[in-house]
């Protein structure tokens, strides 16, 4: 039995708790404990799951009967807790980004090699229905070769977080690491490491970094743009436009239908997307600016299924998370040059 301790009762912790509620009927796991400095918030998540409440991850790992830790803490706290958990023989799910920098990433990789822990990183876009459909289209060669692409992720300033930690670039890595890493990771999963990168940054206040990058893959150019410097009234938008030889695939989270395919023969197709069954999750506001649990549900389902079956985690591994962090650092270094 997978016995999970969820650490962090903020925005992402709430998202994960709702996914676990929706996944309960699948069996094979239980959320045994929820830990957070704010024990009242932790209790809100723990109550529908029948979990115990702890004031710290250390207390939880010492006292609760768990074998898996789900880390939903601010980025700068990921590495030390993950190292402690692996030392205790725990398996791990770590919310993205994996950690703050490549030095921490190297320590995590060494510890995983020492302990053999199963570790997955919460790069949820790999599991988002529109993005998984794009990956199927690309890998099947359905419309010929990919010739160019643009990926964007734009958000209002994230004012809902604990003690505004995202505004401290030393803790968050700015919008580049917290927000833009989604598209960096997805493009790397789709196309691999780019041969060349050019990057421009626009800086506003604090960690409000708006990033524009071009990745070169042979004769293919991929544009990536991201920032959270938009006003509160601006809705989160994740989007892509991907050009193939025989079609253009377009997605916007703010459009209906979200995903369309414009073929060279003049058709406009609306692919049917596999949607997760979220009926088991209690209703209520999860906070933040993301209304769909889809990608979060899919990634946690994958994580639980892999641990249950004993199969190795093959998607969004610790090595993947660390490589995507290194690619982002490479893009930021290109901006400095």
TrEMBL record:
Every copy of the GFO/IDH/MocA-like oxidoreductase domain together lies at 131-248
- Name the source's superkingdom: Bacteria
- What's an example of a GO molecular-function annotation for this chain? nucleotide binding
List, alphabetically, the Pfam families matched: GFO_IDH_MocA, GFO_IDH_MocA_C3
Domain named Gfo/Idh/MocA-like oxidoreductase N-terminal: residues: 2-122
Q: What InterPro entries does the record point to?
A: Gfo/Idh/MocA-like_OxRdtase_N, Gfo/Idh/MocA_Oxidoreductases, GFO_IDH_MocA-like_dom, NAD(P)-bd_dom_sf
Task: Tell me the PANTHER family matching this sequence.
Answer: BILIVERDIN REDUCTASE A (PTHR43377)
Q: Return the protein name.
A: Gfo/Idh/MocA family oxidoreductase
